[in-house]
Fold:
Amino acid sequence: MTQPEAPDDRTLLSAIAQGDRAALVTLYERHSGVVYSHLVLLTDDHGLSEEILQDTMLAVWRGAGGFRGDSSVRSWIIAIARRQCRDRLRRRRPTLVPQEVLANRPAAEPGPEEQVLGRMAAGAVMTAVGALPRHHREVLDLVFRTGLPLAEIAKILEIPVGTVKSRLFAARAALVRSMPEGGYAS
Structure:
């Protein structure tokens, strides 16, 4: 017995616009991991990222009928998440963290950059990526973790495609420059 084919994202959005909660659950299961990972990159706070993800999915629920189809559903959701994140961070006051808490903080988990730059030592790559400006880390994350086309990334970031390309080039160049000579695996 064959199972019915899963509906595509646009079909799910249409169903969500009609009030179908099961469609929202399916869309959440399909995209929440990538969106959450991107939010963690932007906020560096897992709890806050989870809250923003929930706000994002509520916005998807409310705005599903307004999806114009100019981009993929995934990039539309990521764009909503970025706006939610930006708004939340604007309202948030900075929290001072004691030095001893930061000293005992675990290192970030290896990301897709390690796979792309597979021959480099993971620790050196993560250190180098962490040292990049946030706008470079964000472009790397969107290119390698989400797999979205550059044109859609440009729409999400609200910048020209050429700027996405130049940020990606600059991020890669900075990674190469920052790697120690022994940073390549044998």
About this structure: The two ends are 49 Å apart (CA to CA).
